[in-house]
Amino acid sequence: MKPFKSVLLLTASVCIGSALAQAPPPLPPPPAASQAPYYGPQDLEQIVAQIALYPDPLLAQLLTASTYWNQIPDAASWARQHSYLMGDQLARAITEDNLPWDASVLGLLPFPSVLDMMAGNMAWTQDLGQAVLTNRAAVMDAIQDQRQRAYNYGYLRTNAQYRVITPAPGDIEILPVNPALIYVPFYDPGVVFFRPRAGFFVGGAITFGPAIGIGVFAPFGWGGISFGWGAHTIIVNNRPWDRTWVNRGAYVHPYVYQRPRAVAPRMERHELREWGGPVRGGGGRERR
């Protein structure tokens, strides 16, 4: 029995050795959660293309809110369900419902189409938020590059909704004609950042949604929001917004509105209705 036992042991050893030899190499460990992602210039151009021509106040609000990408889906749902509320009623509902999101996200609730765009492509929203946290200067430079292209090709011009001004070389600002009213622009990035074909009417490449009054939403960051393009700063509530990848877990921007600490579960106090999407044209808030 000994020779037979030796043959079995030898056969088993060969089989095990062969299996180990054919086994794939171990996978490298996943990157640490704290490792900052990298986005190259071309990546950033693609990321910012669909928002680069937003007016500065709305763009600044969107960039800061994107860094709280995990809050966007719930905020988009709330905005759709309360799209029948406008102005003071909407501002009161935001406060009364004790919504648990950052004030930058609350500031986008009057813009359900913008939140829907963000919630509908969460991979893009997270990329944008991470890029803002890791390299805000590069994000802002990419926006300026895209604006310059649209300006050079004649698409970006002063109109009834916005003033396009160049306070310094390389800086293009898009400011509301009426600071109290914001219009969401709609455009195709595959059109406005490229040379128009012969006979193409560039004036119709950018359209606008309805006017949205932001005066009553000042506590949520609309009281003083702008860019310092040369210094690569975002000004929110008249103060520099300084959230980064490193301090993202602890940074709290000093908004006028400070979300109260919930001592009980949040309760909806308003009738919920189905939202049929934004109306492109007319006045008031985006609504069905």
Write the layout of secondary structure elements.
Layout: H1 2-22, H2 41-48, H3 56-66, H4 72-81, H5 87-96, H6 103-106, H7 112-120, H8 122-134, H9 136-152, E1 162-168, E2 171-176, E3 181-182, E4 185-186, H10 189-192, E5 207-208, E6 212-213, E7 225-228, E8 233-236, E9 239-240
Antiparallel strand pairs: 1-2, 3-6, 4-5, 7-8, 8-9
Helix pairs in contact: 2-9, 3-8, 4-7, 8-9
Could you characterize what this model shows?
The protein is globular, with a radius of gyration of 25 Å. It has ten helices and nine strands. By secondary structure, it is an alpha+beta fold. It has a domain at 41-196 and 203-240. The strands form four sheets. The protein has a three-stranded antiparallel β-sheet with strand order 7-8-9, with helices on one face. A two-stranded antiparallel ribbon has the order 1-2. 34% of the residues are buried. It is 37% helix and 11% strand. It has helices spanning 2-22, 41-48, 56-66, 72-81, 87-96, 103-106, 112-120, 122-134, 136-152, 189-192; strands at 162-168, 171-176, 181-182, 185-186, 207-208, 212-213, 225-228, 233-236, 239-240.
In short:
The chain is an alpha+beta fold and 288 residues long.
Low-confidence stretches: 1-33, 260-265, 279-285
Form type: globular
Secondary structure tally: strands: 9
The CA-CA distance between the termini, in Å, is 87 Å
Distinct helical segment count:
10
Order of helical and strand elements: HHHHHHHHHEEEEHEEEEE
**Major sheet attributes:** 3 strands, antiparallel
What portion of residues belong to β-strands? 5-15%
Helix and strand content put the structural class at alpha+beta
Rg for CA atoms: 25 Å
Mean of residue pLDDT?
84
Largest beta sheet: what is the strand line-up?
7-8-9
- Helical residues, percent: 25-40%
